[in-house]
TrEMBL record:
Protein source organism: Saccharothrix texasensis
Protein name per its UniProtKB record: DNA-binding SARP family transcriptional activator
Domain OmpR/PhoB-type: 19-91
Taxonomic placement: Bacteria, Bacillati, Actinomycetota, Actinomycetes, Pseudonocardiales
Keyword terms, alphabetized: DNA-binding, TPR repeat, Transcription, Transcription regulation
Pfam family, one: NB-ARC
């Protein structure tokens, strides 16, 4: 009895040990098999099988038909697989042959490793377990038995997700763990272990205040809905976070130097065959433990589809024990026409994987590269750089010391790496004839052995390219009744047709033949989905986005994409999204241009952009309910799959961040200024608050391009303002100054008085940051005159508040107090404009602190802090905490001051506010100095200077809106 893998974690499926799928495609045999697997190894009565096959009533011939379906299954699986007797039928399943059993064993192993502190092993076990899931378990079955098993498996999956996130956090991937856990907690709010894991991940990510918020949300929910209080374990964790218990620090498993590295290499390719000589050459490059030579670099080159990535991944798994400090992997997408990965972005990902906090990643490429080399010094790490295009894309990613090995794949020969960096080039040619035959046998099985001549011809028709061979094998497997010779004749005719259209003799002609052959098997509806998946600007899409792109509902989109996945025309990522090999994507894009009318393609991309604008508006409404910005008016039409909680919104916005930018850029480049500007207007605050300032720069740059393309000076001015704000938050004050000066000029040129006033206010903020207080005051005074002239009372209050901060920074505290009080009086709706009133309360507290009125200051600051937390305004919360820290130092309580400043520091690391981060360090320096800790004071003073170069880090005060 040959081994197979029965897969029930999704639609029921069977795969042989050689990776070939057993085609159990007819519905009734598939339901029969699913019912037998639900009770694997047990006898199932005929009556029970009939009930599963005909849940709404069995026909008179039910028992006879059931026997026919059993006969068909035995023909597909082998007669010895299904036993029959008086008790009914049973399917024989050996150990390891049912994915559900394998899943549960892996979850148990993951929990054992986690309990033992072996986080790397725990993460790997949970990841492998989760990787077995393809959808709802036993998707083909209904009824109480299936529902019960499904519920148990779903509960185990929750345990695996929880354990994987906890292990990732323990290994330093706190931010990624927090995002994953936030979505789980939102869907399962009463599951206290999940809530505790999220609190721990947030705390380890330096987000103590948010960890405490998660506890408070759970406490309120339990009390309101169930009349319960949190359990003892969660309450104890809450106290540990409040007290910054050192036991919450990551307890890393032992390693070569007490350090645990990442394991990012993708799963190995099933059925890898051949390339023995190349594997031997790679083995010869392995660094010795006593090696003092620079880390070796191997460049695997060859044409597209020849198997470069498969070889790299196969060898990486083979050699992983030689790199105990970790394996890094990045797809550089060098041949993707839309989204190549730059070395800076690749380094950012590597640094985060190696445990560097996002806020500590340098902005400059050279500094990132230096930090990467420093982290790898003395380590043994494998670095896989897949799909590189140029040596310049690779060079910053090379380690600088012995012990590591870099594996690069590229269609280019990368001569520069060989000549200047001593790389070893391994050229992959087409598979030798014998290895091509071996691969076909592994993929097709006995049919290849039964007709070796047809198999040889098929290999030649596919140019012995592994990608083409796999596509052809999938088509052969999907048509078991056709002979291999018939299929070869069909492919020959397809290649003749293409040769008449394109007489290019390169190996890609064989790929095009295989692509075309696969494509022509698709139904018209699925073929259209394939073409559109090549035409969009994103690297990968979720199901809802595919539905929007193709103009279908999600159920239909799922059916269509499942066909493409089974045909190896689309790949599924680890998190259930969909992407294409870049050669297939280019093929699909070419077909779209050839087959689909230009206006049809434009309409599909317009619908995709509509989807992202609409869901972004829904998400932003949850992320910041106090912000009314919804430029496209999209929140009124939510869909069932839209985010419904703030945590869901954050998870969606983080997962789709790259796609949102790609859609905005595509819209700006192709004359769709509306979508580019709508996305910018909707998302700027999210990027601003979350500290994604580089992305904010990109987003506003796209909006600027769109505005300039249609000569819309008002849109150009708005984009310049956004660029200026992003640069200010990054500490790039001179650039911010230039953007705001240009925005003011646009406002004056267009005669838009209201916009000019806002631009002048932003200009004044940057001038104050630069210490140019006289110029700042003049800018604010002009903005104030405009606000009053047009009757903008809210704008007037905001500018008065900003003027107060200029006076405060200049030591004119009484004048500052008068301006804040006048600002408060100018607020048109004090009872409802919480955002502005909270800012004014914060600044009243600051000015009273400067005047030595500590009790009054404390009252205003406490009100401001409560308001900031109630509305989720992290920027303001950090500013108020720093002012409270200054107050505590002034009152002689440096211990309380340190607590406040540390809490503020945790928030600024999350939001990316460089100025407030510098202010927190400056406050810590003062508090430690007052506490008699000169070394700590000196360290924080140095950090304050580094975080805000060229600015006055001690400047306080809240930036009022309006």
């Amino acid at each position: 009895m040959c081994r197979v893998l029965f897969r029930v974690l999704g639609a029921v499926d069977v795969v042989r040990s050689d990776g070939v799928r057993v085609p159990v495609d007819a519905r009734k045999p598939r339901v029969l098999l699913a019912t037998l697997l639900l009770h694997a190894g047990e006898w199932v009565s005929v009556e029970r099988l009939v009930e599963a096959l005909w849940p709404e009533g069995a026909p008179p011939s039910a028992e006879k038909n059931t026997k026919t379906y059993v006969w068909k299954l035995r023909g597909l699986l082998g007669g010895e697989r299904i036993d029959g007797g008086r008790a009914g039928y049973r399917v024989r399943v050996a150990e390891g042959e049912l994915d559900a059993h394998r899943f549960e064993a892996l979850v148990r192993a993951g929990r054992r490793h986690g309990d033992a502190g072996l986080h790397r092993q725990a993460e790997a076990a949970f990841a492998e377990a989760l990787g077995l899931w393809r959808g709802d378990p036993f998707r083909d079955l209904a009824g109480p038995d299936a529902d019960s098993v499904r519920a148990r498996l779903v509960e185990r999956r929750l345990t695996a997700l929880e354990g994987h996130a906890a292990a990732s956090s323990a290994l330093g991937s706190h931010e990624e763990a927090a995002v994953a856990l936030a979505g789980l907690v939102a869907r399962h709010p009463f599951r206290e272990r999940l809530r505790g894991a999220l609190m721990t991940a947030l705390y380890r990510a330096g987000r103590q205040a948010e960890a405490l918020d998660v506890y408070d949300e759970g406490r309120v929910l339990l009390d309101r809905e169930l009349g319960l209080r949190p359990g003892e374990e969660l309450r104890r964790l809450h106290l540990d976070i409040l007290n910054q218990d050192p036991n919450l620090a990551v307890d890393r498993e032992p390693g070569p130097s007490g350090w645990t590295g990442p394991a990012q290499v993708p799963a190995a390719v099933v059925g890898f065959t051949g390339r023995a000589e190349h594997v031997r050459r790679l083995d010869g490059l392995l660094p010795r433990t006593d090696d003092r030579q620079p880390s070796p670099v191997a460049v695997i080159t060859g044409t597209g589809g020849v198997g470069k990535t498969a070889l790299a991944v196969h060898w990486a798994h083979r050699a992983r024990d030689r790199f105990p400090d970790g394996q890094l992997y990045v797809d550089l997408r060098g041949y993707d026409p839309d989204l190549p990965v730059g070395p800076g972005d690749a380094l950012s990902g590597f640094l985060r994987a190696l445990g560097v906090d996002s806020r500590d990643i340098p902005r400059d490429l050279d500094e990132r590269s230096a930090a990467f080399r420093s982290l790898l010094a003395g380590r043994r790490v494998l670095v896989v750089l897949d799909n590189a295009r140029t040596a310049a894309q690779v060079r910053p990613l090379l380690p600088g010391s012995p012990g590591c090995l870099v594996l690069v794949t590229s269609r280019d020969s990368l001569r520069g790496l060989v000549a200047k960096d001593g790389a070893t080039r391994l050229r992959l040619d087409l598979l030798p004839a014998d290895e091509a035959r071996d691969l076909l046998r592994a993929l097709i099985g006995d049919r290849a052995a039964a007709d070796p001549r047809a198999a040889d011809v098929l290999a030649e028709l596919c140019a012995r390219l592994p990608l083409a061979l796999r596509l052809a094998a999938e088509l052969a497997t999907g048509r078991p009744s056709a002979s291999l010779a018939d299929l070869v004749g069909e492919l020959t005719r397809e290649q003749d047709r293409l040769d008449r259209l394109d007489d290019d003799a390169d190996p890609h002609a064989a790929l095009r033949s295989a692509f075309s052959w696969s494509y022509r098997q698709l139904s018209p509806a699925v073929a259209r989905v394939f073409r559109l998946l090549g035409a969009h600007p994103c690297h990968e899409l979720g199901l809802a986005a595919v539905a929007a792109l193709t103009g279908s509902d999600e159920a239909t989109a799922r059916r269509h994409v499942d066909v493409l996945v089974r045909s190896h025309l689309v790949e599924t990522t680890a998190d259930g999204r969909f992407q294409m090999h870049d050669l297939l994507r280019a093929y699909a894009r070419g077909l779209a241009a050839e087959v689909d009318a230009a206006d049809g393609r434009a309409a599909a991309l317009h619908a995709l952009a509509d989807h992202y604008v609409r869901v972004a508006a829904v998400a932003m409404g949850l992320f910041d309910p106090a912000d009314p910005a919804d430029p496209a008016g999209r929140r009124s039409a939510p869909a069932p799959t839209d985010p419904t909680t703030r945590a869901d919104a954050v998870a969606w916005l983080e997962a789709e961040r790259a796609n949102l930018l790609a859609v905005a850029e595509h819209a700006a480049r192709h004359g769709d200024a509306g979508h580019a500007e709508e996305l910018t207007a909707t998302l700027w605050r999210y990027f601003h608050v979350r500290g994604h300032h580089d992305e904010s720069l990109a987003l506003h740059t796209h909006a600027l391009v769109a505005g300039r393309r249609r000569a819309d000076r008002v849109a150009e001015g708005v984009a310049l303002t956004g660029l200026g704000v992003a640069c200010e938050r990054l500490g790039r004050y001179e650039e911010a100054l230039r953007h705001h000066e240009r925005a003011v000029a646009v406002g004056r040129e267009t005669g838009d008085v209201s916009f000019t006033g806002r631009a002048l206010k932003n200009l004044g903020v940057v001038l104050r940051r630069l210490g140019r207080h006289d110029e700042s005051q003049r800018s604010f005074q002009e903005a104030l005159a405009i606000a009053r002239a047009i009757g903008n009372r809210r704008g007037e209050a905001g500018v008065l508040c900003s003027l107060a901060l200029v006076h405060e920074a200049s030591g004119r505290y009484e004048e500052a107090l008068r301006h804040v009080e006048r600002a408060l009086a100018a607020v048109p709706d004090v009872d409802n404009d919480h955002a502005l009133v909270d800012h004014l309360q914060a600044n009243l507290g600051l000015v009273h602190l400067r005047l030595g009125r500590w009790e009054v200051a404390g009252k205003h600051l406490d009100e401001a802090l409560a308001g900031a937390r109630a509305t989720g305004n992290r920027d303001l919360e950090a500013e108020v905490l720093d002012t409270l820290g200054e107050l505590a130092t002034a009152e002689g309580d440096p211990g309380r001051a340190v607590d406040h400043h540390h809490e503020a520091l945790a928030l600024t690391r999350r939001t990316g506010d460089r100025h407030e981060e510098a202010r927190a360090h400056d406050g810590l320096a003062r508090a430690h100095a007052a506490w008699g800790r000169p070394e700590d004071a000196r360290r924080h003073r140095l950090l304050a200077t580094r975080r805000a170069p060229g600015a006055r880090p001690v400047d306080g005060g809240s930036r009022a809106p309006g």
